[in-house]
Amino acid sequence: MSPNTSKKALDGGWGWVVIVACFMAQFLAYGSPQSVGVLYPEWLHTFQEGKGMTAWVGSLVSGVGLIASPVCSACVDNFGARPVTIFSGVMVAGGLMLSAFAPNVQFLIFSYGIVVGLGCGLVYAATLTITCQYFDKRRGLALGIVTTGTSVGGFLYATAQNELIVLFGLEGCLLIIGALALNLMACAGFMRPLNMPGYYLKQKAALERTKEQPFTKPPADDLKTTPGTGEKKLAVKDHLITIDAKDIPTPDNKRGFMAGLAIVKIIKKKRQAYSKYMHSTADFLHDRNFMALCIAIFLFSLGAFPPVLFMEDVAQSEGLIDEVKIIPLVSIVAITTGVGKLTLGMLADMRWINSVFLYAFTLLGTGTALLLIPISKSYVGLQVLSAVVGFFSGNWSLTSYITTKIVGLDKLTQAHGILMFFGGFGIMLGPPVVGWFFDWTQSYDLAFYFSGGSVLLGGVTLFLCALPCWDKKKADIDRPDIQYTSNCDKVASVA
């Protein structure tokens, strides 16, 4: 959302309808990707590929959307949540249906991993943006409800996909859930924007200029992003999608040398805007706490995401297939993740709890549970550990809260995009690495020791970097040493 909004957040009213629509959008988009662990054994049996190669499908569908989150956010800023959600519905549904006809894993990596993954990334950016537009004081609660849609979707889709595979086969299952994903376009209809996106503002200004003053140069304030902003300075990201009207060639200077100069000027201004954006992005990486958070999210994503994909296969490889219950392990992870999002979000609002240390604690708990998975030899034990991993994985609801605390609200969008890039990169690497460990050792033990150790390392790193003693040392270094020899010296130094 642009910082200059044309209307105030409502904190209710139609906003609750938007919350329901966004919840259903995330439910429909992320239901299958969050329960991809149910499809994973079927793909292994169908295509007879290695676990490492097949794991790329599940890792890409979750990682691509996060890595492309800066681009997805720019699309929402420029075109609005409603058109982006409609387009994402076509991508998600098309990718799922196309996956039903996949002849090999390589095609599945493209159709399910990349196409569905990008569609999910667009849904995520659109739903969070429109939610922030409608809520201010209750924004935390609203975001918690919306993001819970992914967990509820993973819980229900895991059981549903199991039943659909039994009834209609793998191809029929993918076709049915692809048809359900088309309802994303219906959800988009309720996402009524509070302010016009940048693309429509530019188009409206250009149309008014050509109708009212076809042969005169328009004033420079025709393309203000919102009414009533005055001379307020634009944010860095706003320069990436905004062109001053004075730089656009008008009908009286479209020909000849002047038109060429105008185009060169536009290109130069855009290059400067991108240069400023890259410099501001690099400034985040110089902050100790923010860099520690990036490392922690990368290591957490690297180690904590594989259980979502491999838990069912772990149970089968341990000979526990006869003990599999109606509710799969993937469903347990999904529903406890939703509980964790709400619980951890409420804990972060308490004044006496440090949200950074709370996030580090969730990493330590997740790492410990992952280290215990190879030791557990019963299905009940796997169910308990899956619940623990799922609950602490609800710490995704804390990322925006912690990011705001570190960099401030004005820089939240840009900084959050960087964090999601690190998280998506970890999610992409985690499952293939675990699969390669299994292909190498024919056991999941070493793989989960690696995953648990990675998450523990991330938690310890974030905890140590967040200790207040670092800030105290910096304050001592920055404070100048002033020695006063007399009262006159004191008066002079104060002056």
- Beta-strand content: under 5%
Number of separate strands: 0
Largest sheet: none
What's the tally of helices? 21
Average pLDDT confidence is 76
Gap between N and C termini: 46 Å
Helix content: over 70%
- Order of secondary-structure elements: HHHHHHHHHHHHHHHHHHHHH
Give the overall silhouette.
globular
Give the structural class: mainly alpha
User: What value does the Rg take, in angstroms?
Assistant: 26 Å
What does this structure look like?
The chain is an all-alpha fold and 495 residues long. It has 21 helices and no strands. The chain has helices spanning 14-34, 36-47, 51-67, 69-79, 81-99, 105-134, 139-181, 184-188, 198-212, 236-239, 256-284, 288-304, 306-317, 329-348, 355-372, 379-392, 399-407, 412-441, 445-465, 469-478, 487-494. Helix 6 runs antiparallel to helix 7 (139-181) and helix 12 packs parallel to helix 15. The longest helix has 43 residues, at 139-181. The radius of gyration is 26 Å and the shape is globular. The chain starts with 13 loop residues before the first helix and ends with a helix.
